[in-house]
Amino acid sequence: MLSPPPHRRTHRWGLGAFLLVQALFLLVSVLLAAGFGSPGALSLVVTLVLPTLVAGGAAVLVTLVRGNGPRVDFGLRWHWQDVRTGLAIGGVGLVSTMLATTLWMRWMEPGDAGSAVSGLLAGVRLPPALAVLIFLHIWLVAPVCEELVYRGLLWGAMERMRWSQLNVFVLSTAIFAIGHLEPERTALLLVVAIPIGVARMVTGRLTASVVAHQVNNFLPALGLLLISLGLLPG
Q1: Core-most of 16, 29, 121, 233, by most CB within 10 Å?
Q2: What average pLDDT does the structure give for the chain?
Q3: Does the global pTM surpass 0.85?
Q4: Rounded CA separation 5/233 (Å)
């Protein structure tokens, strides 16, 4: 007698959960900016790091309350194949991002060329420990949190609506670029996001997109580290 096919565990969150996490990110950012007033080095670091951590943690909490946890719902597991895929696609994405950034900076006015993070840290000399913390956050931690929100929570919400993988990829990529709230850099962020989304789509799991995102963030994070330490001009 044949055994019945295994039942696929599904989650119970939708786009409302994603919007709630986004609103939480903005609320924490605004409260920190208002609460610190004239920010010093430490408060700048907290303002940069804490909202991202809160958003990533909230995305995980949604999966625990309304789903099966991030391992099942996001495929957030350690697979060497996913790591290799993320490294390969991330490497290609890094090259395309560097080319796109070079072209984009030629078109933009000098004062509009930096990201929101570089603008926040402009002219600020950080102590070495805080500079390294920012470097590690931008390179390793922020990609995990952003992937939990965009290629995890948002991706899963659209999959639950039975949209095709191509539509999910296209819309999540666009929302990722727009969701950074940097209108001048939206086109550049689209270039950044495409290979990261491809890594998520071809593997069906979040691990590959996290690795691809980390590969893409390494050089910008290193540049900010050197600028923050005064080793490169701002």
Answers
A1: 121
A2: 88
A3: yes
A4: 61
